[in-house]
Amino acid sequence: MVDEMKKMREDIKLLKELCMEGDEHRCFDAIKERLQEVKEEVAEEAMIRKKMEDELKKMLEDIKLLKELCGC
């Protein structure tokens, strides 16, 4: 998390420098690239969260079954 924040700050600093230099093409390309990276990170995190939710649901079903089997 700390590394991600550091990278984000560095990216923002670079984008500011590019935009301040008046190099709109490079600035726009850098923004597009960073946006794509963020989209990929969000998609990966969503996939991981979904997988964890599925695993939790299965574990809860297993616990329910075990309770029924032991009569708890």
From TrEMBL:
Q: Does the keyword Coiled coil apply?
A: yes
Keywords associated with the record: Coiled coil
What are the coiled-coil residue ranges? 35-69
| Protein's UniProt keywords contain Coiled coil | yes
Going by the entry's taxonomy, the superkingdom of the source organism is recorded as: Eukaryota
The protein's name in its UniProt record: (rape) hypothetical protein
